[in-house]
Amino acid sequence: MSITILGIESSCDDTGAAVIRDGKLLSNVTASQKVHENYGGVVPELASRAHQQNIVPVVSTALKEAGVSKEELSAVCVTLGPGLMGSLLVGVSFAKGLAASLGIPLIEANHLQGHVMANQLTQALEYPFLCLLVSGGNSQILRVDAYNKMTILGQTIDDAAGEAMDKCSKVMGFGYPGGPIIDKLARKGNPDAYTFAKPNVKNLDYSFSGLKTSFLYFLRDELKKDALFVEHHKEDLAASLEKTIVDILMKKLKLAVKQTGIRHVALSGGVSANTALRQAFLNQEKAGNWKVYIPPFSFTTDNAAMIAITGYYKYLDKDFCPLDKPAYSKVGIKPV
Ligand code: KG4
Predict the structure, then answer these.
(1) Which ligand 1 atom sits closest to the C-alpha of 275?
(2) CATH H-level, domain 4-117+299-316: superfamily
(3) Global pTM?
(4) Which atom of ligand 1 is found nearest the CA of 162?
């Protein structure tokens, strides 16, 4: 009998639903919330309200596009955390209600584990592998021994890589989220035009707050000399900032490969959409150093397909979640 999983994602500002049957993705629907653009960041209460508006139509569309009725579902898998509590509660409550009414199991997914599993949607992963997980809230190097056995080898001690891009974009007066804007501008800029601080942190950990401050001070000084400095040099600024962030990320990742001897390396999280970072991975593969796993663009940012595939593997292991288990906002990646 086939196994059909509905995945639901609502941890931040994207409402997502996806259907997977026997490991094959049938539909993947995401409603991105535009309401935050005017605020330079996600406004939690607005996000919760938008999830409430989106959840029913998004799930209905995902089922319709998959050609699957509710009664055909084997289980519902939902992101239980980490994320914004008000956002999580919308998806979690909906998933619990649906699972209870259909009499099928509920499965919980860790959002970060889901990002890693996004790679599994398009290719067979060979364990163990390392994964660079880079998003707006996290920057981690993981050792992945199985879909449910992930160990943090290093992580940011302050800001995440995506957060650094978003904040630097904000001080330049660009929109939110800054990552895609910087990526686009950087394609036309000189990555060696300016240098910014690359903090020295121990072991495999990262730090991006020093870079952010160095960028801010540099801009402040230049703007004193030329009030239109950003306008005149935005491409070079974006390219140099992007290069600095990619260099920081790759340096520790190369060290992790050296320390572990694991040469299969995956990329995941929102920042994995970044052109220069993807290219840096491909360069390692071209040089014969690594075998790389890079998710297609559609699976880089928050989506429910990655939650549904996680649910599929958990279903095979009969790893179900009690209906009284609460959502959690802050726990990092760990086997659940
Ligand atoms: O994983 P994600 O969708 O959300 C969470 O943080 O959970 O990641 C969002 C982050 C934002 O910081 C955004 O600026 C960044 O991913 N991002 C990018 C690109 N696309 C999204 N950063 C650099 N280059 C991109 N093309």
Answers:
(1) 26
(2) ATPase, nucleotide binding domain (3.30.420.40)
(3) 0.92
(4) 12
Task: Using alpha carbons only, give the angle 76, 67, 294 rounded to the nearest 5 degrees.
Answer: 65
Whether 271 is in the pocket of ligand 1, judged by its Cβ within 6 Å, is yes
CA of 166 to the centre of ligand 1 (A): 8
Specify whether the CB–CB gap between 336 and 45 falls below 8 A.
no
pLDDT for residue 266 is more than 70: yes
Tens of pLDDT, residue by residue over 32-75, are: 887 787 777 788 899 999 999 999 999 999 999 999 999 999 99
Taking the C-alpha atoms of residue 182 and residue 238, their distance in angstroms, rounded to an integer, is 5
Nearest partner of 297 among 159, 179, 189, 188, judged by Cα: 179
Q: Is the CB of 269 under 6 A from ligand 1?
A: yes
Label residue 129 exposed, middle or buried (CB < 10 Å: 0-12, 13-18, 19+): buried
Q: How far apart are CA 59 and CA 62, in angstroms?
A: 5
125-294 topology per CATH: Nucleotidyltransferase; domain 5 (3.30.420)
What ranges do the domains of the chain cover? 4-117+299-316, 125-294
